[in-house]
Amino acid sequence: MRNSRQIDHSGFSACAFSLDAQLAAEGWEWRFVADAKRAQEAIAMYEELEQEVRVEAIALAEIKEECQGCWLVLSHLKAIYTRKKAKPVETAS
User: Fold this and answer.
1) d(Cα 44, Cα 67) in Å, to the nearest integer?
2) Which end of the chain is more exposed for a tag (fewer CB within 10 A), N or C?
């Protein structure tokens, strides 16, 4: 299930693309979109901050016809999601 959300990006003119509602239900928070190099930098930074990081392709098929100008740019970008790392469950000895 996808949740359509209007996202205003610097450099994009309010492109609308869907975010995965299942990811939100699992505690993932959408952060931003990035190219491959910036995605790797973001992964390293968020992991340093003890966050789990997930990188997903953007659902390009859902981009409206009037937004096709953004399709080419968005096809090279990935959505970055993070969530707090789960604390290990301690077992009684």
Assistant:
1) 32
2) C
